[in-house]
Design a protein that fits this description.
By secondary structure, the protein is mostly beta strands. The chain folds into two domains: 110 residues, no CATH class; 36 residues, no CATH class. It has three helices and eight strands. The longest helix has 7 residues. The radius of gyration is 18 Å and the shape is elongated. It starts with 10 loop residues before the first strand and ends in a 16-residue tail after the last strand.
Length: 148
């Protein structure tokens, strides 16, 4: 889309191309999003725009995905009760099952920086060859929204 057509607060469909040429989509332009977007090549998903970078022709966006993985930070009381050394900050990571031992899907919101040219109106036809990544998504560990 063109810069003047993108509105903050609106929801668009993002179509990530198959190829991400380094010359065009450099990590210094895409930031931490470059890694996550490389895993989302040839997919499409809805996102909400939170800011538009007119000079770089990029948008800061929010993307919601569903995950069965959860990470919980332990409180100091929990650390003490478990007999762990204090002051280190501990986390428990795993899957949250229900009473029937089925995984519970939880929403996760992450931020990305995407080129404006990847944004499309939600009712526009999807480009050929793209796969739906609307709810289930991949956030690599360390990427925005990763395992949190």
């Amino acid at each position: 889309m063109r810069t003047k057509d993108v509105r903050v607060g609106q929801t668009y469909r993002c179509e990530v191309p198959f190829a991400l040429p380094y010359r065009r989509y450099r990590p210094d332009t895409m930031g931490d999003s470059w890694c996550a977007l490389s895993w989302l090549r040839e997919t499409y998903f809805p996102l909400s725009v939170t800011d538009v970078g007119t000079e770089a022709r990029t948008a800061q966006v929010l993307r919601m995905v569903s995950t069965i993985h959860v990470t919980v930070e332990l409180t100091e009381d929990q650390v003490e009760a478990l007999g762990l050394p204090p002051g280190r900050g501990y986390q428990v990571t795993g899957m949250l099952p229900d009473t029937e031992d089925e995984p519970v899907e939880l929403p996760r919101v992450g931020t990305l920086t995407v080129p404006l040219r990847w944004l499309h109106l939600m009712d526009a036809p999807v480009s050929g060859g793209h796969h739906d990544a609307s709810l289930r998504g991949f956030w690599p560990t360390g990427a925005p929204g990763g395992h949190r």
